[in-house]
Amino acid sequence: MDLHALNAEFGIPGTLSLVEGPGGLTLIEIANPLATARLATHGGQVLAYRPRSAREDLLFVGERAHFAPDREIKGGVPLCWPWFGRDPAEPERVIHGFARVLEWTPVQCEACADGSTRVRMRVTDDARTRAIWPHAFVLEVEIRIGATLSVALTTRNPGDSALRITQGLHAYFRIGGLARLTVEGLDGCRYLDYAAGAPEPEAVQEGDLIFRGEVNRIYERVPSSLSIQDPGLGRRIRIDGRNSGTCVVWNPWIASARAMEDLDDGDYLRFICVETVNAASEVIEIPPGDAFTLAADYRIQEF
Ligand SMILES: O=P(O)(O)OC[C@H]1O[C@H](O)[C@H](O)[C@@H](O)[C@@H]1O
């Protein structure tokens, strides 16, 4: 669909428009009384979100992020689906599934009575996805741009056998440095530590999480509410997850950031990922005709 037709169907004058972005990708630009945001139909991904009162964007997108039809965009809130990390069924496959390189179709853009804006995008199975993952599916993301950013990813199973998925809202949060930054809410949670490559035996988090080297962990049985305390940007980010018992915290530190061609060497000081996921042993089984929603609300509290 061309941009003119998309705007005629989904545009909201003065609030929402579809524009051509880098690499020819389609972006959805939103400016309402509560916040501004940018979404990509590529990957169904939020790229930017800033409440009107906030000094800085919630999210990080690197200068070297790829904007191309066949590449994932590193930053914002990539949607990892239908597997998170390594595919448990076929570990040699690309990590984090294929949803983040699909072109999502807008199905609804709505100005809500409270001043927020709601966008729904969808992908369904086709010959290309069935060649990788032989299942019928309807996958929908609902993104709400208000005083809070809400992202809800719903998997529907229209097929006649159960779907088994792992998945994640792989949020890249913009930060003001790591020296004084903490993640709160994980005290006492067991975690798998992937920083050394293969997961180390389970360990237990003691106190708030601090960053003094690469962190790549899957925490289990996490509380629904976590927060990032970021004195560098003078703010706290509150993350309220739904239907997620696992959480990934990732910062590549120096060597892994250098090894990634879509990160700048210094980017490790500019973001951390705190990801609302169903991962590791938290495999979601969706019976035929059923649906499952993984969701998170993100809120900035400045101090
Ligand atoms: O580079 P990506 O495919 O976006 O993945 C980035 C990172 O995502 C997760 O947080 C994983 O735990 C990491 O192992 C991975 O390196």
Automatic annotation (TrEMBL):
Single Gene Ontology MF annotation: glucose-6-phosphate 1-epimerase activity
GO biological process: carbohydrate metabolic process
Domain of life: Bacteria
UniProt key word Isomerase: yes
EC number(s) per entry: 5.1.3.15
CDD domains in the cross-refs: D-hex-6-P-epi_like
InterPro entries: Aldose_1/G6P_1-epimerase, G6P_1-epimerase, Gal_mutarotase_sf_dom, GH-type_carb-bd
Reaction equations catalysed: alpha-D-glucose 6-phosphate = beta-D-glucose 6-phosphate
Keywords from the UniProt entry: Isomerase
The keyword Isomerase is annotated on this UniProt entry: yes
Catalytic site positions: H170, E275
The family this protein is said to belong to: Belongs to the glucose-6-phosphate 1-epimerase family.
PANTHER family the UniProt entry points to: APOSPORY-ASSOCIATED PROTEIN C-RELATED, GLUCOSE-6-PHOSPHATE 1-EPIMERASE
Name of the molecule in the record: Putative glucose-6-phosphate 1-epimerase
The species this protein was found in: Imhoffiella purpurea
